[in-house]
Request: fold
Amino acid sequence: MEELKSDALAEVAAAASSAALKEVEVRWLGKKGRLTALLKGLKDLAPDERKLRGKALNLLKKDLVEAIGSKGAELQRAEVEASTEGEWVDVTLPGIEPAAGGLHPLTQVMEDVEEVFRGMGYHVMDYPEAEDEFHNFESLNIPADHPARDIQDTFYLTDGNLLRTHTSSGQVRAMRNLEPPFRAIFIGRVYRFEATDASHEHTFHQIEGLMIDRNVSVAHLRSSMTQLLAGVFGRKVEVRLRPGYFPFVEPGFELDLRCMVCGGKGCPVCKNSGWVEFLGCGLVHPNVIRAGGLDPSEWEGWAFGVGLSRLVMMKYEIDDIRWLMSGDLRFLRQF
Ligand code: DAH
Reply:
């Protein structure tokens, strides 16, 4: 019995891994194990001897189970330690910044502008980029033979529609969709068949504003523009109106901003004039009001159109419009 015990415990002590220990366990205590076989053999012995041997074997079994248990815990601890030794982490090292996407500068400024206008009670509308000639030209007082169609070079689609050349295409849609009086802006992508350079791009973005009400004057237009631009730029702006021709407004204006770079003293940005040409605007032409399904003797309005791309370029001092649509990550990562 002593020999049996020291054999078993020696095997337990010699097990070098959890797997080896498991084998020892099976060898002794498994269904066909040595100790199991001896215990099974008890039934063939005479009652006195069975009692004596039974007691000794059960004691041995108890010792063996205990020895396997504590050896197992010891081996497991060692194994966990060994496996984590090569995998430790220095939590004091600086982290690796995960690559994260961001909003395009056009989107950022667009969202800012939307917020300013929403705060002033404007609807923010969205209209199709693929338009028909009616909404892009006819309804805006630009008939097929009108020389103004030459101002804008148009991408025509094979189905006779076109890619809108300006967001003004939304004016009549807005008049037909909204109950007057109303004010709305539509911001979006516009297209021109254009030779590209630092200040011309075939795809760019505009913001269009339209206000329809009774008894609208140029004074309203001027003060609204000043207020809106102050909201967009976050500071007071000085504006000046010059006569400008757009078929869908009468009178029409070019609005200039006092140069924000030099404050009006004259610099390369304003070409030494102190003013920067900024947007087109005017009182909505009666023909356009009519195309919108409203009676021009009752309803009047003002409209403006401004380049969102231009706004973004001024805000971030971007010197070439082609960066905006380039998809170049070296450019985009700076925002
Ligand atoms: N649609 C014009 C353009 O693309 C800009 C414009 C001028 C819009 C005068 C207006 C406006 O609403 O009143 O150049």
Remarks:
- Residues 14 and 21 are 9 Å apart (CA to CA).
- The chain is about 40% helix and 20% strand.
- The chain has two domains: 2-85, 105-332.
- Residues 166, 168, 208, 246, 249, 252, 280-282, 303-305 surround 3,4-dihydroxyphenylalanine (CB under 6 Å).
